[in-house]
Q: What sequence folds into this?
């Protein structure tokens, strides 16, 4: 479309650079590992990430320069690469032609920069974290592969390409969660993640088919612009548009761990901590949010779909926050916190504030990655301990970790002027603007809970007396600079990211009318007060009145049990899987149909043939006279026919 | 020099003899008896041929009878030789005892 | 007069053929068959084929049946006992044979042929003339070879294996 040959090529380079890193590392990985150059592998992997980041920055700047709008709105039209002379048809089936095209617009740039930027920091962190692991080269190759697929997801120009990236990150998630595959729980968790994702993916595929059937196209740009041409009935409660939106949202629930497909995310903490930071905090799980935001015009035209998205998001946010209250593993708390924050993003989408959702996605990437990496630093310092009940008083022993972690906690809780405050505040404002007081109330309550469980985590880990057993051979030590530098960088990002006016930046790319800001000047004060309330309460309950939580737990025994059982989701799924699916398959499908019906049919045919043959054998009497008689009978019959019956 | 032996009656006699012979083939158990019934059938056919020869007034029928008789003689010789060989094998000329084709 | 003779001989032939099939003792069957053959010879003569009648007596009754009797004596056969392995066979056989006769009869007596030539009588010379004529000469010689082959075959089949 635009006359810039470089701009037609550079984004593809940015996309394929991590893939080249994966290829190099997998081809030469064994050699590198044996020579003891694992550190070098990490550097290579980080370099490809940084390279992608740089190329995307260049692409964005170039595009802004070329498409500068005199009204100040920067490139509100999307720039579709891979069209015109460079068109490469990826799928050609009859009249359907899907090119391998990339979409560059504010939304995809924000996502792409987040993926490659935060990804780069996490790669660097991993160099230090995985230094003692004997298979780190495999790890880095997987990380690079993941980066490639994630970039494909956010840069892809049509739904099928997005879906390739979608499946690819699911695959890498499985590979990385089960990285330490010799550990049974890790490989189980990997399988669980993949299977639950698959359920969502099935819905996604059906949604894609429905979208193609309704609109005749799967191009992301065309899907957005063609919505207006549909008649009103199509947007009714069961119209094709609503169904498409709901199905795609179900797929997003799988990827972004919303109710009821959230069960894989806490288990995914079996993987290395940087993996949790990258995949299950900053990037992969945000893929679902990206999908909904990208198809914002589609969703905005269906009230039913919007309502479903908002309700599911809010519910998930609240439920996950309550479960986080009783977790004792530091990473599990953060996992449920991620689920909860993703719920916030969907809440924002559901009330029409798509740009705000992306904004929260952006800030959340920073502070959640920071928190995960910080917890990784704590675990590393304690040589593998993850249970908060055996931590405490670490703030003097690992100060750098502590201070960066504090920044992350405050950002997540929503304390101004850190990033989380701005994005979370905007979400609550959006809920008010859409006149959903109920959602606003639940969202506010969840914010208080968020602050509370984060405060609990902070206090249990860093304050008070150390409750664990320190092994003199492995003393508590601060992490190496390769791990601390990314922490500091992310801390700065968490602090300053609020200043980026993302909603305004991506707004035009979303092609939906912006949500007007409600006139509620009291909102920031109330939100801040709630956050501080949560933090202070946690501080008191866990450092001073340490008895109270235990007594509360005893008094509210049923509630505590429900929370500890995670509301029984895992039990329910296990029951469905083992009772319904496995037992049902065994009894009905295997014994009933396969053995009984099919084998019975086939064997029955055999037996029938055998018995038929046994019966027919009786004709072979061996009696000469009998045979002759039959011959005579035949002759008589033939003559009878010829003579009398004709 | 005789008029009116009704040819039709001769033919009916031929058919009757043929049927009787056929009956005998299935009713007798002795191999040689079966053979004799077959000879009976052949003779019935001969009768038919001769009757037709008279009806048409040509000699073709009789010539055919001549050949039939000759072949019947050859066949009887060979067939009886076979029966002798069989009897030597199984020490029986009962048709029912040659049931090797039985399943 | 001829007609009466014909009916007499016919009845006799029928009767003795019934004896052939009904008599359990095969020797007696053979003798009854000889009677049948002789009756047929007479009928052949009445139908104007004296040559054939003579042949019937000489070849059929005189040679073939004698051969039968020789073999019967040689093998020392015993009279049959009972219907054997299949009783339904009897009934079915009779029924089918009756049907067959009926069918054959119905075929034979219709048709477009003359009622018969008055005073038809074929002398042997005419027979010889036809037999050695061009139409039947080859057949005649072939039949001779056939008899030779049968002769050899019969000897080979029936001879005893030398120890």
A:
């Amino acid at each position: 479309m635009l006359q810039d040959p470089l701009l037609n090529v550079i984004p593809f380079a940015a996309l394929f650079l991590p893939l080249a890193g994966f290829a190099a590392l997998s081809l030469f990985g064994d050699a590198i590992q044996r020579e003891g150059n694992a550190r070098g592998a990490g550097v290579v992997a980080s370099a490809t990430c940084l390279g992608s980041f740089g190329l995307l920055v260049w692409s964005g700047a170039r595009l802004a320069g070329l498409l500068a709008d005199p009204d100040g709105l920067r490139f509100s039209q999307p720039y579709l690469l891979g069209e015109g002379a460079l068109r490469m048809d990826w799928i050609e089936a009859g009249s359907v032609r899907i090119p391998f095209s990339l979409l560059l617009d504010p939304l995809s740039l924000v996502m792409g920069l987040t993926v490659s930027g935060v990804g780069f920091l996490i790669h660097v962190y991993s160099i230090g974290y995985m230094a003692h692991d004997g298979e780190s080269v495999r790890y880095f190759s997987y990380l690079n592969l993941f980066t490639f697929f994630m970039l494909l997801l956010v840069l892809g120009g049509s739904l099928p390409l997005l879906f390739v990236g979608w499946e690819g990150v699911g695959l890498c998630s499985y590979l990385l969660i089960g990285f330490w595959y010799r550990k049974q729980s890790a490989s189980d968790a990997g399988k669980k993640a993949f299977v639950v994702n698959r359920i969502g993916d099935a819905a996604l595929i059906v949604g894609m088919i429905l979208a193609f059937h309704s609109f005749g196209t799967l191009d992301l740009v065309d899907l957005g612009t063609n919505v207006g041409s549909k008649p009103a009935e199509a947007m009714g409660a069961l119209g094709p548009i609503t169904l498409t939106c709901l199905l795609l949202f179900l797929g997003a629930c799988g990827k972004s761990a919303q109710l009821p497909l959230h069960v894989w995310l806490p288990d995914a903490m079996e993987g290395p901590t940087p993996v949790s930071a990258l995949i299950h905090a900053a990037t992969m799980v945000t893929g679902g949010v990206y999908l909904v935001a990208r198809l914002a015009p589609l969703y905005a035209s269906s009230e039913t779909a919007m309502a479903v998205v908002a309700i599911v998001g809010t519910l998930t946010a609240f439920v996950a926050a309550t479960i986080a209250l009783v977790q004792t593993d530091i990473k599990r708390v953060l996992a449920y916190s991620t689920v909860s924050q993703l719920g916030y993003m969907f809440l924002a989408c559901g009330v029409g504030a798509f740009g705000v959702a992306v904004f929260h996605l952006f800030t959340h990437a920073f502070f959640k990655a920071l928190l995960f990496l910080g917890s990784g630093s704590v675990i590393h310092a304690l040589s593998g301990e993850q249970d908060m009940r055996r931590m405490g008083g670490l703030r003097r022993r690992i100060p750098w970790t502590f201070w960066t972690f504090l920044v992350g906690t405050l950002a997540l809780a929503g304390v101004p002027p850190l990033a989380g405050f701005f994005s979370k505040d905007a979400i609550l404002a959006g809920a008010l603007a859409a006149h959903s007081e109920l959602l606003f109330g639940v969202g506010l309550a969840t914010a208080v809970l968020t602050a509370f469980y984060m405060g609990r985590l902070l206090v249990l880990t860093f304050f008070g007396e150390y409750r664990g057993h320190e092994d003199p051979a492995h003393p508590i030590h601060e992490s190496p600079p390769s791990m601390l530098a990314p922490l500091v960088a992310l801390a700065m990002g968490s602090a300053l990211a609020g200043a980026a006016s993302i909603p305004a930046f991506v707004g035009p790319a979303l092609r939906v009318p912006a949500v007007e800001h409600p006139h509620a000047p009291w909102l920031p004060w109330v939100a801040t007060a709630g956050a501080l309330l949560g933090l202070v309460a946690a501080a008191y309950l866990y450092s001073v009145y340490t008895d109270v939580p235990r007594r509360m737990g005893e008094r509210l025994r049923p509630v505590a049990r429900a929370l500890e059982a995670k509301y029984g989701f895992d039990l329910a799924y296990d029951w469905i899987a083992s009772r319904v699916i496995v037992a049902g398959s065994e009894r009905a499908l295997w014994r009933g149909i396969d053995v009984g019906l099919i084998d019975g049919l086939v064997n029955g045919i055999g037996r029938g043939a055998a018995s038929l043959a046994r019966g027919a054998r009786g004709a072979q009497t061996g009696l000469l006279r009998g045979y002759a008689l039959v011959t005579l009978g035949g002759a008589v019959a033939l003559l009878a026919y010829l003579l009398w019956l004709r | 020099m005789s008029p009116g032996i009704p040819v039709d009656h001769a033919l009916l006699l031929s058919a009757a003899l043929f049927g009787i012979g056929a009956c005998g083939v299935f009713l007798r158990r002795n191999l040689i008896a079966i053979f004799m019934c077959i000879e009976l059938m052949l003779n019935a056919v001969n009768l038919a041929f001769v009757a037709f020869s008279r009806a048409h007034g040509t000699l073709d029928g009789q010539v055919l009878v001549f050949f039939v008789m000759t072949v019947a003689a050859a066949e009887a010789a060979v067939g009886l030789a076979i029966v002798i060989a069989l009897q030597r094998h199984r020490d029986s000329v009962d048709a029912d005892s040659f049931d090797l084709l039985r399943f | 007069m001829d007609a009466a003779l014909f009916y007499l001989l016919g009845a006799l032939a029928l009767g003795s053929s019934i004896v052939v099939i009904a008599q359990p003792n095969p020797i007696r069957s053979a003798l009854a068959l000889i009677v049948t053959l002789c009756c047929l010879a007479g009928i052949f003569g009445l139908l104007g084929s004296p040559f054939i009648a003579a042949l019937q007596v000489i070849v059929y009754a005189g040679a073939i049946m004698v051969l039968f009797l020789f073999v019967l004596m040689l093998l020392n056969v015993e009279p049959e006992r009972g219907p054997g392995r299949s009783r339904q066979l009897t009934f079915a056989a009779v029924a089918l044979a009756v049907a067959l006769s009926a069918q054959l009869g119905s075929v034979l007596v219709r048709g477009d042929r003359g009622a018969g030539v008055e005073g038809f009588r074929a002398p042997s010379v005419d027979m010889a003339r036809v037999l050695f004529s061009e139409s039947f000469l080859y057949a005649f010689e072939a039949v001779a070879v056939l008899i030779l082959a049968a002769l050899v075959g019969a000897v080979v089949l029936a001879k005893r294996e030398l120890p």
Remarks:
- The first helix of chain C runs from residue 2 to 22.
- Residues 27 and 72 of chain C are 7 Å apart (CA to CA).
- Chain C is about 75% helix and 0% strand.
- The radius of gyration of chain C is 20 Å.
